[in-house]
Design goal:
The complex is a heterodimer of chains A (about 260) and B (about 270). Chain A has about 260 residues and is mainly alpha-helical. Chain A has helices at about 10-30, 35-60, 65-85, 95-115, 125-155, 160-165, 170-195, 205-210, 215-250. In chain A, helix 1 packs antiparallel against helix 2. Chain A starts with 8 loop residues before the first helix and ends in a 13-residue tail after the last helix. Chain B is α/β, with parallel strands linked by helices. In chain B, helix 6 packs across helix 7 (about 160-175), helix 7 (about 160-175) packs parallel to helix 8 and helix 8 packs parallel to helix 9. The chains are: A mainly alpha (about 260), B alpha/beta (about 270).
Chain lengths: ~260, ~270
Amino acid sequence: MSGVLDLSWWQLGFALLLVGVVVVISLRQALGLERDLAIGALRTIVQLYLVGLILAAVFSAARWYWVLLILAVMAAIATHAAVSRLAKPIPGVYWIAATALTISTAATLAYVIGIVVQPRPWWEPQYVIPIAGMILGNSMTSAALAGDRLQADLFTRRDEVETRLALGFSGREAVQPLVRAALRAAMIPTVNGMMTVGVVQLPGMMTGQILAGASPLTAIRYQIVVVFMLAVATALGSLLFVRLAVGRYLTPAHQLRRYLL
Amino acid sequence: MGAVKQNEATYNPAGATGVPDAIFQVQHLSLAYPGRRGQPPATILGDVSVDVERGGALTLVGPSGSGKSSLLRCLNRLEEPTAGTVRFDGRPITELDPRELRRRAALVQQTAVLFEGTVRDNLLVRSPGVAFDFSELRLRDMLAEVGLEPSMVDRDAATLSGGEKQRVTIARALLRDPQALLLDEPTSALDPPNAALVVETVSRLRQSRRLSIVAVTHSPELVHRLGGALLYLVRGHAEAYERLDDGAHRVTDPRLKAFLAGDLPLSPSA
């Protein structure tokens, strides 16, 4: 096994022809997607090229603080993405999402890097950045899924919540079934994914490692770590987000803030 | 609104308050929701004062959106007023544990909410932190008291009719020995026969248990059966207050007269 084949510019040009096929389909079927396809293709090239340049610079600079800075920027973008998926604003939601994503990612990353993978030095960007990216992406998706479900349920089940309050339940007790439903909604895709991993399609990271010349047996070991790591990232991200967010809908006097729904 | 008040209003805060033995004393109550995205706050209630006599009844009437339900929800503190005070049994409700207040002033909502399980499960539903238990006899007696078959205790709650569900929620509230019952349009989701049964149940309870009752309703029938006093709200403001104890014929406000005669739904222009 040798290293990965480098792709030249003209090879990328051939790949771009694939987008041309999609444009033709869009034109023939009157899908009206040509403009978005062109912009999307351009953004793919520019964004990934910029990321490549930044990562190359960070890899060669080899300083822990550059790695942390990259992680902070990634967390900020993930926070914004998670928040923008919510149907209605929640007061203080940026702070909530940032806290949930930072804590869930930091805890998961610390365990995976410090105890499972153990790269030397600990901040080795080649390991830390892609692993942190996967954790953050899953935390973000699960926080957004859980938040979306919680918001929808608080609205449709508000009478049920207030019935419990009227029967002397505390605010937290009254929303507990809704919190549970939101967490299940966020975690079920991950749990289901564990059932079919590798059988239906090879996970992206494993594919990448195999393409880069790693032995499939090495690649699956990493993939096993990744699956378990993403399960905990999903659970922690949604749990922290929902616990913090539901507090915004309750008052110390065990009231539901209906005007936020 | 000011013009309406001068012409027709029969609301005099001094007449609506100062009841000798009051279970609820509502003073200068206002409620506003914060505005969204630069919008001004939405006023729900503006400077409402009214007392409810211990063992008495107060019905809240008015067009939809007039703040009747919000006023009711201020009484057991499901809503937090922006200004003013509510006293329950002599004490400001902000000094009470809201959970204890809600046990003593039990709310029955417009749409009965029953949880998964049997009628028994629903009667016994309680906060995980609270330890209480009721004997089987007590549960059956309670069902009988609201006019249901005691054997219904084992029925799946999902199989009950609307009127049965509503009476189970009343039984659930009564099990906790409340001093006051707050009813939010208890009959509006029911068909006439079921509504009549609920009206009958509530008015009987008022007498048999000396329960204080505050009810939001569009039903003249319920108002007649409960008696007590009548507060008419429009856009969050009290427009009229009448006592029915001396008979509905003594009501002077023309809009309330028409409402009690079953003539028209109350609307701002009525």
